[in-house]
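Quick start: read one record
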Amino acid sequence: MIRVLIADDQALVRAGFHSLLARADDIEVVGEAVDGRDAVAQTARLRPDVVLMDVRMPLLDGIAATEQIVADPHMAATRVIVVTTFELDEYIHRALRAGASGFLLKDLDPDELRRAVRVVAAGEALLAPSVTRRLIGAFTRRGAALPPGLAAAGAGLTEREREVVALVGRGLSNEEIAAALVISPATAKTHVSHAMTKLGARDRAQLVVFAYETGLV
């Protein structure tokens, strides 16, 4: 069972997400947070698998709350999906830097929401609908420094691993990477895992940061 915390200051939004997720047999909503501080506190207490984190919240915004959750080793198993809108796309880069594992637009359909939660909970892929993929590319090319350790570790990647990371940066799944490189999905997954280990990356989101900020994409 995937345990989810919904963090949004709008009661109607929380109720909507709760209703949509409750229809899935493998997802359980374990709590709702009304502001960023509440989201961090409830995450520490409930240890959900996934937090749906709105960007704009009182007391502590969603990006800062994400940073606190990701930085706390006691909450290392929790993945954060940042919820944004077209008007807030400038937050995508900050969310990536903070350690968010995925992104959703608020006008998503119910199936996409449930699929997103499953994908991020499994740690398999960064959510990358085509529009979000383009936005990630635009905002990660602004020249900010790499997360600690990523730049130095990049020298240890093999040529094949660099190819794989570049494809991860374009938003491809393991299956799509396998097709592009004419290898098996299992081999693609192994290359992704090795690259994450060498770079000290928490998840595929940080591989995307590395791919864009080192010019692989």
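The chain has two domains: 2-140, 150-213.
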